[in-house]
Predict the 3D structure of the following.
Amino acid sequence: MKTSVWKIITKNTFTLFNLVNLILALMVFFVGSYKNMLFIGIAIANTLISIINELRAKKIVDKMRLVSEKNPVLIKNGKETEIKPEKVQINDELKLSLGDQVLFDSTVLTGTIEVNEAFITGEQENILKQPGDELISGSFIVAGSATVKVKNVGTDNFVNKLEQDAKVIKTADSKLFKLMNNIVKYISYILIPVGALLLWSRFRTEQDTTVAVTSTVAALINMIPEGLILLTSSALALSTVRLSRKKVLVQDLYSIETLARVDCICLDKTGTLTTGKMTVKDIVPADGVEKSTLKNALELILAHVKTDNATGEALGREFALGTKNRATDEIDVEVIPFSSDRKYSGIKIKNTEYDLGALKFISDNKAFQAAEKSLKGIYRVLAIVKKTDKKETLLGFVRLEDEIRKDAPEIINYFYDNNIDIKIISGDDLKNVTNIAGLVGVKNLNGIDLSTLKHPNYKKLVKEYGIFTRVTPNQKRELVGALKEQGNTVAMTGDGVNDILAMKEADCSIAIGDGSDAARRASKLVLLKSNFSAVPSIIDEGRQTINNLEHSATLFLAKTVYATILAVVFVLLPFSYPFSPIEMSLLNFVCIGFPAFVLALEKNTDRIKDRFTTNIIEYSFPIGFTVSIAMLALSIISEFNNFSHFELTTTSLFITFAIDLILIYWISKPLNKLRTGLLFAIIAIMTAAFGIPFIREFFEFTFLTKNGLIIIAAVIAASFGVFFLMRALMRLISKKLLNMV
């Protein structure tokens, strides 16, 4: 679904975090401590960066959609021209073909087609539509072609009314999305009551109103991990931009993450193992049939049956598609259009029927099947059968050759190297698919023809078999569903209308650019150049984004942990709060924002290990508890040593900085040039902030006495011990929790 510019702006501007920041900024403003409002500038910058990143990604995605989406074909004065959907008007005549999605409520004028209305009605059966029948927007063409007259456009369309009436927003199926939402939800629950209690507590213990308000604001700002939300959306938006350079259209931002987590990928042979291009190898007449008789029958069928798929194109090139047999010009011909369920097409002339397609779906004659068996191999075999009221006659076969992708073995090997299981799901012949799968390196060549099973046990089948053939669209969906039920994160590739149901069922769907319009519209990712070799790049891109966010989230959530603990503790204790907003703005940039940004750029394509929760337990909590204990100890010490407010906040800042540095070092292991440089840069920035006079004054740092420096050194040394003790304890808790799960 396209996202408007206004929606992007409002979504990023009118957020709970921005509202909280605005309220806190007004509180500081009213007490006259203007420079402590620096955090609102950071919030504005965060919002602008997020908006700019999403708008940039939207611009690229919209341009790529123009390339990806097929425009309606307008028929006017006998001429066919493409037209943009928004320019279509009521009563316009449009041409619809196999694979097209019906964009407008229409009436069939000429032609016979079959449509699938599963997205609207939920019914999986294909419906035959003839002149005079109505077409519902949102359905798609699975067989034949027709000319239709447009009845409704815009919001009057059935599918648009349905969306407006439903008013249902489907949330992203994303672990990352759910984690961020839960963090926001739980912090929101405690932010207002804790803030109110803390403000009351500060007024009770502080003589200075300005100090009471600014310390309360500092506590609440720290509880909000707003940079984490920004970093997540920005990282995914930048991934979209990078993938666009590889001609990959990302239609769902979180699909990048989903594909990165995939551990099972379902491939159709066509467009993935093969290029989708086919050539006619030869035609093989049946015993007693002249080659010319077979060829004439083929030309007769192809003159009336219009097929827009690769098979039809190959046959059309070889047998002059469109040249009608003069003997049938004046005779009524009933067309049987090709469909994925039927797996054959044909024509009926009076009492004679000519069928072209998979033999087992045309005839159960064992002699015919024996003749076909000798031809099977790496070629796709189509049979031509003539039927009358009295008998069936096998006229012969057409052998077609798939063009195997040169990079297919490399891609298949990539999946296995990255522990991604492969399932081949195809509508073609078992022997043909198995041979091609073997040529490109698929390991599990144990295959089954689903058309031979009356009541398939899909859960059992997906455990045993790696190749499934003669699969109907509904069976493809059932197979994907069975894989998901076993705990797999499933990706499905497809290029035709027969793949759409399975693509909708899969966790992540990938459409081949040269495929049908309906398949592209139904997918989350589109390979515009039909370059299946881009899939490993998408997986690597997602892994880099998620792995780096795991590191960055640890930094943000460590701050949230200690800020929340301290906010609650200082409601109960009559001590001065140890931070000011302006100093925390500096600390947040140096120890969280800057390292998170640098780490997010690092190349990291390791398999995702879902360590968000583990990292929070093993790193964020230990650091959070360590800072909380250190600040509590410092507050007690400051009471006995009569620290001024500025001495307390300066001391607190440097102790917290030292503890945060432990965390940054720990999550940066093993160190490389980038990570080592990051550590030195962080130390240099903080040294400059304290050492340069005007910066020091701006951030309200004060020089510490010898006694103050000794206290800092002692608390930092003790904090190191507390951190390692807390980390050992948290690791033990983490292991027990994992064992319980």
Notes: The first helix runs from residue 5 to 13. Residues 163-172 have pLDDT under 50 and may be disordered. The chain has 27 helices and 23 strands.
